[in-house]
Structures are given as C-alpha cells and as structure tokens.
Amino acid sequence: MDRNKVVQCFKRLQNGNDVRGVAVATPTEGRTLSAGCVSFIAAAFAGYVAQKTGKSPESLRIGVGHDSRISASELMDACFVGLGNTNVFDCGLISTPAMFQSTVLACSDFDGAIMLTASHLPFHRNGMKFFTKDGALNKADLSVMLENAADLCCRYGAIDDDALVTAERFKTGDRQPQSFDMVGGYCAHMRDLIQRAVNAEDYEHPLAGLHIIEDAGNGAAGFFATHILQPLGADISGSVYLDPDGHFPNHVPNPEDAAAMAAAQKATLNARADLGVIFDCDGDRGAVVFSDGTEVNRNVLIALLATIVAEKSPGSTIVTDSVTSDELAAYLEKHLGMKHLRYKRGYKNVIDKAVDLNKNGELCELAIETSGHGAFKENYFSDDGAYIATVIICKMAQLRKSGRRIEDLIESLEHPAESREIRFKIGAPDFVSYGKSVLEAFGQFAAGDARFHIVEPNYEGIRIRFDDDEVKGWMLLRMSLHDPAMPMNVEAKAIGGVDIILGRLQPFFDRFDQLVRTDG
C-alpha cells in the first residue's frame, strides 16, 4: 500500500485541531470520513493518550460521545473498535463541552475523550474532537496522530479507488464499551455552579421566577433547558427544537446564522421570556436574546461577558479574534478599563493566546471569538455555550435582587452604523502563496495612500483605519483559516460609509484576476 497516499487520505480530514469529513455521501459529495478512518484514528488517539499519561492502553479510561447527526451510531461503533483495548465508556448523545469536562470532573475522571461532531455543518458531515485533561488536542499533535493512524491503516487496512479507508483484520481488543451517564454528571456540575453563584434564599431553586427559553436547533444541547434550568426553578415553556434530529429540519444549528437567530428571537418574543438562549449543534457555541428580542451575539455578547468579568477581575485582559469592532475596543478599554488584545480568527488561536498570557503573568479571564466560542479561565478555558449562558443567567438572577435588568449592563456600548463581510475566492492553484502576495501588495497599496492608516499591532491580515472628513471606519483583509478564500470585513460609523471604503479599495482589487468576489 502506498503510504503517501494513505497519509494524504487521513491528512485531508484535518481541519485545524479537529477531524472533519463527509460521513454520508450525497449526489454532489462523495464520502471521505469512513468507519475505517474513524477506527484507526481512535486507536491512534489511545496511543497518544497512553504516551501523554505514561499509562498502558489497558489502564486508560476513554469516553466517547456524539451529537445528533445521522451518522453517529456507525462512527461510535468504529470508535469502539479502535479503543477495544482500553476502558472505553459510551457517553451517548451529549455536548462537546460536557465531553471535555469528562476529563476533569471527579465523577468520570477520563484520561481522554472523543466527541463525534461537525458543529454547525450540514447533516451529512461529521468529525472528531479530542480532549485530555489539558484541553483540546492542538493542531500539531493531531497532525502527528493522523500519520500514526495512516500507519495503522497500512498494516491492517485497505484503501479503495475513491480513497475510502476500510479496517481489515483490525481489532485492538475485546473490551466492550460501558454506558456512562456523562450528561447527568455535567448537568449536576452546572446546577451546583448556578446555585453557588446566585446563593438565593431558596438555594435549591435559584432561578424561580425567571422565564428562559432555549432554541437547541435539534442539536445535542437540549438538555440545558430540561436538565439544568428547569430543575432550578426556571420556567422553560416556549423552548423550541430541543429534540435531537440530525437532519436539522427547522434551521441550521448555528448562532451566527441569520435564520437560526431569527428563530430564537421569535421564540423569545412569543413566550414573553426574560431571556432566550441558542446553541450550535454540539453546544460549544452560544448566544442569547434579550426579552425585547435584541440579538446578543458577536460584539454585543463579548461586551456583556466582559462587563461581568470586569466586576470580578478589573483591569484584566480580554482576548478576541481579529474582526471585532472599534466600538467594542473602546468599550472594553475606556468604559470597563480592561485590556483588549485583538488576535487571530479561530477559537483555538484565541484560547491558546489567553492561556499563554496567563502563563506569562498577564491576567486574562476571557477568550472569545465573534462566532460565539467563548472560554473562561475559571472553566479551564473550555469553549462552552452552556457556560456562557450560565454566566449571563446567574448575573440576571443576581441583578433581579436589586430590581436591575441584564440589558442595563451594556447600555453604553456603541455600535457601527454599517457592517459587511465580503469574500473573495482565490482561483490560483497555489492559493496560499497567491493570498500572501495579495496581502503584501495590499500593504504597499495602503502605505501609498494618506487616507489609509495601517493598524499596528495586528496579528492577522492587514487592518486599515479610516478617519477623515469623508468616512470613519475600518477594514480587514485576511486569509481564510481553511478555504482558498480571502474574507474582508468592513465597518463604518455612518450610513454609506462602507460603500465609500469599498470605492477606495476597488482600484486595488481590479489588479487581481484570480480574486473572484462571491457575495454578489
């Protein structure tokens, strides 16, 4: 078997620090993530955990969970084949953050955990996320692990003409998976957090009198309403799409999606709820809706969480991704007195930077991407949509004691008048090199125009500030994290400003025939 071909088969499944692929073939997409692939990757993960912990594979405790995707059952069985010489636990339908918590909570104390999910991607896709007690696997470790999986395939597997991997003669052991109620353990942990944070007179029911609805998007996190909020006294009537359905019949489970957020807003208003919460399919991203239907997402969500953090840790650093607004930066730094580090896109980049800062003596309590991935130092820097919602709900319950509203916390936050994201598809075969050349040329173009103020420091792409009589705003041109594309974000402080900025940029983009604007 051609090892290079097999390695390519596995490496194409890497998406940052996750595995992603097509698990169910469609008329337009062939299958790329087979059961064989999953078996070998799971076995390689067991090897990785054994090496990391110094334990023998036979003594390892590894949990496996899944979201609501239709391919979950087949891929779970494939995981169990690869983990057959470990103590493997079937955690069933669960959220990604709960699977990370399975490695740190005493009730489970797993050495490692695998979550089968593809987050908000379409129903026919699936993937794998990996955790140890130190958090999610990083990109470099996953790359090595996939090479080890490819080596196992070369020894015990086969690869067909369509580059699908099958496991032949492969069995790591005869141990059967044991059922484990990790949802129950995670929910008990979350309920305890809320009870202690609110410290209500009725300690067992700190959310009594609050009406909170959830839109789970038919993903895995519907238990947040039924197993956490309701037992603590909250009224959850009016919650929608709590039942798991891997076809996602109502809307894409994605807090960034306009239709998904509109559904959460509608449910909140229809129920006349005090708050609405919405999660993605595997529960690691979240957003909320105020009682009047206001969407609390992206910059607004960051501002709200930072306000809560600032009360406990004044002056600490907030790490965000690169596309946050100037208005948010001013709010964090001038209104809250916090430090703001605008870093790279990619939730793992943001989280890793926050961890780094703390290691180097700079207090950073919150790392959050505009996508809704938010991670708190106090929660092991695990990006957890339910934890985000819990922080907000606890603050609501505390404010209610003095007759205040959660909305009042961010009433001084200003917003851009216009905001737009534009994507350019790169047609060149070597899109990475082409994209770098575009950015280099753009830097020279901007430096030659006195109206363009290059922002420094800047950690991703090129960010320009505009501050003249005609327009005030900013733009950022960068490479996509994974795709042959260049996203460009533009914001302006007055209506019509985005078009003025785009007009100034057009002469530059006219020079590049391999950049095709795909947003119309």
Keywords:
single chain, 520 residues, alpha+beta, Alpha-D-Glucose-1,6-Bisphosphate, Chain A, domain 3, TATA-Binding Protein, 3 domains, eight-stranded mixed β-sheet, six-stranded antiparallel β-sheet, 36% helix
Short description:
By secondary structure, the protein is an alpha+beta fold.
Number of helical segments? 14
How many domain regions? 3
N-end to C-end Cα span: 46 Å
* Main beta-sheet annotation: 8 strands, mixed
What would you say the CATH architecture of the largest domain is? Answer: 3-Layer(aba) Sandwich
Structural class: alpha+beta
Q: Regions with pLDDT < 50 over 5+ consecutive residues?
A: none
Task: Please estimate the helix content.
Answer: 25-40%
Radius of gyration in whole Å, from Cα? 24 Å
Global geometry: globular
The level 1 CATH classification of the largest domain is: Alpha Beta
Total beta strand runs = 24
Average pLDDT taken over every residue = 96
CATH superfamily of the largest domain: Alpha-D-Glucose-1,6-Bisphosphate, subunit A, domain 3
